[in-house]
């Protein structure tokens, strides 16, 4: 596949030349992608209408999907595509992608940074898909439809369909972000519970003592003391999961995106909650034998401070009416309790 001109006598390069617009298209799309990734949208001069924004964004994604289909079909083997057609196709693709980016830029910061990031990621994925499709067409032999081209076309369709499942305001966006953090933390917790339950030697599947020719290596075991310390680390990990679950419930029940103040409070919650899963991962990694107690203590302290901050921000925000204050206090105490125990166990390391 690839832009092919009807061969003109005496110009064997005509078919290759016809692809030139596609090469230029690739360059333009890369520039659009770079700008999207770093770009700050404007604050829109006219009053912003959320519904109009979504309708228009949906249309631009749909048009881009159709242009991807046209482009792909034009290079599906036959009939031959002239340089003129190739130029027209490239222009249509470029216009469709520029419209996607332009409409994203309509979305003002005031609508929420979490929402904006999700819309931006979706737009960037469409542009990436289109770049990939164009590259596959350029690199394929002239008169074939490659498997890669079919896959790339499907990739653009999928990226364009995402627009229908995007959260429609910052409350929905923050709920989606929290749910995704919760999923990561659940996985990390399950993995750790599994490792601890597996018995004394988490690396038994990797290292058979006999095969290595020396007796059991202490470095791959948890001692009794290790296990006591780790039980409180697990307490912190469980508190992380409970914290995300409760905050997510509160955002769904009470979160509103109807004023700048509430939108900002939701963003603050999402920003700090985003730090939970990397902190859980770092703590989990330091829990594997040989256990370095000081590393465990430092990672636990970092996670504890992130959790305390999440609870603090929740408590002072609109998602926490008096009815929710009980669990905020309870989880805050649970974090302190586990952290104090970890400090007691690691006192000798300081």
TrEMBL record:
Entry keyword Cytoplasm: yes
GO cellular component: cytoplasm; nucleus
Compartments where located: Cytoplasm; Nucleus
Superkingdom to which the source organism belongs: Eukaryota
Keywords per UniProt: Cell cycle, Cytoplasm, Nucleus
Residue ranges constituting the Cyclin-D1-binding protein 1-like C-terminal domain according to the UniProt record: 208-312
Residues covered by the Cyclin-D1-binding protein 1-like N-terminal domain: 57-197
Annotated signal peptide: none
Keyword Repressor applies: no
Gene3D superfamilies (alphabetical): I/LWEQ domain, Talin, central domain
Entries under Pfam families matching the protein: GCIP_C, GCIP_N
Database matches in InterPro entries: GCIP-like, GCIP-like_N, GCIP_C
Family: Belongs to the CCNDBP1 family.
Protein's name in the database: CCDB1 protein
């Amino acid at each position: 596949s690839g832009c092919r001109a009807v061969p003109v006598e005496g110009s064997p390069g005509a078919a290759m030349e016809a692809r030139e617009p596609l090469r230029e298209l690739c360059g333009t799309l890369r520039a659009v992608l770079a700008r999207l990734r770093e770009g700050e949208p404007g604050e829109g001069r006219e009053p912003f209408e959320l519904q109009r924004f979504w309708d228009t964004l949906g249309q631009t994604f749909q048009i881009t999907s159709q242009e991807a289909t046209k482009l792909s079909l034009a290079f599906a083997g036959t009939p031959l595509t002239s340089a003129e057609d190739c130029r027209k196709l490239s222009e249509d693709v470029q216009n469709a992608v520029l419209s996607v980016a332009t409409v994203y830029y309509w979305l003002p910061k005031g609508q929420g940074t979490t929402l904006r990031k999700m819309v931006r990621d979706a737009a960037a994925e469409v542009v990436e898909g289109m770049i990939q499709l164009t590259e596959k067409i350029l690199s394929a032999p002239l008169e074939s439809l490659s498997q890669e081209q079919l896959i790339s076309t499907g990739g653009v369709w999928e990226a364009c369909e995402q627009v229908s499942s995007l959260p429609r305001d910052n409350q929905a966006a923050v709920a989606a972000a929290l749910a995704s953090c919760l999923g990561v933390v659940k996985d990390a917790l399950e993995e750790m519970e599994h490792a601890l339950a597996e018995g004394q030697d988490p690396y038994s599947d990797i290292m058979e003592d006999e095969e290595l020719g020396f007796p059991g290596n202490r470095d791959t075991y948890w001692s009794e003391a290790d296990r006591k310390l780790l039980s409180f680390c697990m307490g912190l990990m469980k508190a992380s999961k409970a914290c995300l679950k409760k905050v997510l419930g509160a955002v769904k029940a009470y979160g509103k995106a109807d004023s700048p103040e509430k939108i900002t409070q939701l963003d603050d919650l999402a920003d700090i909650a985003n730090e939970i899963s990397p902190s859980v991962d770092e703590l989990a990694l330091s829990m594997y034998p040989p256990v370095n107690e000081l590393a465990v203590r430092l990672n636990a302290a970092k996670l504890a401070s992130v959790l305390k901050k999440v609870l603090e921000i929740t408590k002072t925000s609109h998602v926490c009416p008096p009815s929710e204050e009980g669990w905020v206090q309870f989880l805050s105490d649970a974090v302190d309790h586990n952290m104090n125990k970890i400090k007691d166990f690691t006192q000798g390391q300081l």
